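Exercise 7.
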Amino acid sequence: MLGNSQTRPGNHPSRSATSPWRHGLLLTPALLALALAACSGNTPPTAEAGVATAASAGAASGTSIFAHAPAATREALEKTKPVTAKHAMVVSDQHYATEAGVQILKAGGNAVDAAVAVGYALAVTQPCCGNIGGGGFMTIHLANGKNLFLNFREKAPLKATTDMFQDAEGNVVKERTEGSYLGVGVPGTVMGLNTALAKYGTMSVKQVIQPAIKLARDGFVLEQGDADILNGRLEALNKYPHSAAIFGHGGKPWQAGDRLVQKDLANSLEKIAEGGTDAFYKGSIAKAIVKASDANGGLFTMKDFANYNVEWLKPIQCKYHGYTIISAPPPSSGGTTLCLTLNILEPYPISKWGYASVEFIHYFAEAERRAFATRNTYLGDPDFVHNPIEKLLSPAYADKLRSTIQPDKATPSSEIKSFLPANEGNNTTHYSVMDASGNAVAVTYTINYLFGIKQIAGDTGFYLNNEMDDFTAKPGVANGAGLVQGKVNRVQPGKRPLSSMTPTIVMKNGKPYIISGSPGSATIISTTMQSIINVVDFGMNMQQSVNAPHIHQQWYPQVVYVGPGLMTAQTRQKLEAMGYTFKERHLGVLESILIDPKTGMLEGASDPHRSAGSAVGY
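Solution. The predicted structure, written as tokens, is:
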């Protein structure tokens, strides 16, 4: 049963499909030192003297807040409305998973209970990305005021070595990270979901996993969006017998209306329902993965699974225009990069410039160029490297980076010095949950590429991740996302690879205001950040903020990625004259919630790019 309020994306601005894609960036230690030593008195002439206020210069003047956008984009966005509800909301990019979360909330569960139910349901209904064979992060705000972060990112096997993805001549062999058992990290999702449930939920694993078991055992009817994802990798899904038997469809394209049944996955989920976390890490499931790994040149032993752990960490926190941002700390780069970019942008008159204006696109791209350069130089797994978060998020560092932005010129990325040219595709998934008691949960989790390594271990029924590709296979050589990263993120036994996942909760006066996140590799950071800026600075509703074309710049390559329909021809010409090069592509798949601080009404927004998603509230 659906809730009283719901939406299924469909009649929104069109978005182009994307392929797996990733990238990232770097600054020198010398530049960091210079920035930290700098005084903070160099406010740029374009910056506002005071803190920018939320939103509505356009509305106050009677002009559209989309005045700088092309006419077709403006007309579509002006008509866009979110789903609204009084009590609770669940938003994910697969409607059966959304409904599973709402079902748990209506049965008396809280936001954590619902989030765990959605996580397990997505493992069934979105096998490309939802998972029990990968890992991720969970950001939580509890009604009692606590802000929490759970790290269940995958770990490298204990037999992993720094040069394991290089041949005898030192060349990187991409097939090892992208499609083999060497590319698989120890999965963290089951322990992560169950740990959150045990600590802050009110229901048992057996209760919250039941919707997922039913969906797997009985099957579910595919929407066109579901079929498109499967068909996009159909040849690869038919390559291996265990995969082909479930998802291969005899090599014939899947159609909307087909029923996908996953009995092997149902059996694995039932084992978890009965035996909890140990059923995955110490029982037959782990044994099946180790056996398949042995047979296919992998490194796993049962000790890898027995030693796996999740971590409760202090979330990244920063201020922006009177709001408090709660986001992901290392081993995610997401929260740090998001907050550094916002720190650079904060003094500028963004709301006056307006969405899609020349000025906003220019300064946003330049702020990101500098923040992403920082990201890939300094950040890594905190169990292995020191992350200088306090220094990177200091006002002095933002001031120094801001002072290098020229008002009328794109900075060549080569001028942002680095000791090296320093990511998750759109193959990750994010979901957001808000309950009636004031608890909020944002979850982003992944198996990296669509369907991970495209292989299923024995009769376990789920795809395994290829997260080892997120490590630095060799300093100076791009990974599958195109990121060229440094030694901080090199492979080490038991280490977690750097991530861009950015599950984020924005607070206003101590209460949740926005819950947001996205898949999309390094673009995760950009789209999540713009889902906030679009509301706070431009006055958009939540669905407008999600649907609006977005911007992404990540130091290298020099190009700025923009969503189709962002710029008018005149805007593009002016920016190209400033030195910019643009490529159009859809960026991210936002699944977001806004809570109106005056009325308490919830706005749910599911990205229309994955047409099988939904926002459901009651």
